[in-house]
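Design a sequence for this backbone.
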């Protein structure tokens, strides 16, 4: 059997940070209110496009794998905030990397986009269509955020991560996964004004309204991820106790705690970084997974469980196997262009731009 082994990993977090105290300067909220309800303390706000974040993350993934852009057969870009819909964003990453041989495709399943992209690339490697792939999960949500809506404005941030996968005869990478969707509940997490449905309707892109029914999302998130985990584990005749590490979607600390309780997992097996980044949608699980690797938590002979959920309402759960701990073969010198603006200043610019747009006053 051919496996799609993970050989490289990288992340790119914008330098500008938006703290809970920053949010309290223009929303009726506080650090305590946000922290107790979500577990979040801060999030990143990007000053560049999502393709640029993805490019830097990909360069890092190639460097840790000891590879170059010429080694890439496929780029699968998971996101909801692509720079453009036509041409696709993956082709822009190909151009930035100089990966001229790579096929390119975009995947949008909201917060699970990075994980669905991992399934897509893994399947194409296992089937022999390609021998290698870059998998991206990245978002720049801040320009589309409804910054006067406290229910959503405190939750989301920008970021990117990437994995480099390569065909291998050694048992490694994704061993099993489960994907699904609660389509009947898609309207409880939806963004009005974001898509072709609204074209030529006197509504500026960015003038979005978020439908976000938190309690219902909470229930569906826990149910979907738990079902996905149980189904995936059963495919491998494993139990939750056989898992070395769980890296869940970081949407809300209460959701993570509820999932761990439902699966009877000890907290020391669950990786959490929600306090630093909030919910980065498609980037969330992959950034957390990269940080788990960087912290030496992906060890020899380990099974890693990656559950996620997102708008749609999509859900997924992947079990990855590593016979040996991952070791970096290099480091990329590619970085983002610098910015002198803080996260709060970048958000204030977005708020002013929306307020001054004549289309938003109709």
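Sequence:
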């Amino acid at each position: 059997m051919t496996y799609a082994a993970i050989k490289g990993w990288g992340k790119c977090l914008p330098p500008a940070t938006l703290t809970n105290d920053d949010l309290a300067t223009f929303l009726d909220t506080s650090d305590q209110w946000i922290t107790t309800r979500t577990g979040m303390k801060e999030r990143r706000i990007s000053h560049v496009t999502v393709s640029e974040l993805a490019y830097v993350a990909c360069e890092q993934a190639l460097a840790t794998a000891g590879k170059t852009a010429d080694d890439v057969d496929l780029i699968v870009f998971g996101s909801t905030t692509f720079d453009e819909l036509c041409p696709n964003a993956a082709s822009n990453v190909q151009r930035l990397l100089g990966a001229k041989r790579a096929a390119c495709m975009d995947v949008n399943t909201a917060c699970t986009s990075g994980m669905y992209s991992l399934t897509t690339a893994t399947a194409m490697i296992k089937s022999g269509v390609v021998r290698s792939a870059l998998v991206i999960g990245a978002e720049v949500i801040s320009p589309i955020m409804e910054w006067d809506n406290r229910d959503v404005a405190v939750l989301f941030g920008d970021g990117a991560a990437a994995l480099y996968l390569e065909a291998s005869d050694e048992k490694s990478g994704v061993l099993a996964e489960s994907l699904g969707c609660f389509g009947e509940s898609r309207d409880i997490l939806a963004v009005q004004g974001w898509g072709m449905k609204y074209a030529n309707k006197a509504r500026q892109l960015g003038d979005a309204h978020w439908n976000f029914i938190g309690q219902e999302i909470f229930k569906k998130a826990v149910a979907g991820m738990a079902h996905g985990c149980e189904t995936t584990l059963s495919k491998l005749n494993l139990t939750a106790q056989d898992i070395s590490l769980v890296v869940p979607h970081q949407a809300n600390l209460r959701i993570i705690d509820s999932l761990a309780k439902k699966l009877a997992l000890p907290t020391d097996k669950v990786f959490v970084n929600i306090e630093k980044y909030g919910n980065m949608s498609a980037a969330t699980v992959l950034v957390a997974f990269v940080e788990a690797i960087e912290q030496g938590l992906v060890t020899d002979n380990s099974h890693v469980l990656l559950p996620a959920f997102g708008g749609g309402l999509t859900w997924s759960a992947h079990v990855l196997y590593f016979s040996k701990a991952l070791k970096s073969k290099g480091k990329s010198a590619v970085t983002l262009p610098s910015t002198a603006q803080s996260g709060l200043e970048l958000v204030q610019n977005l708020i002013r731009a929306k307020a001054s747009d004549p289309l938003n006053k109709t």
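The chain is about 30% helix and 20% strand.
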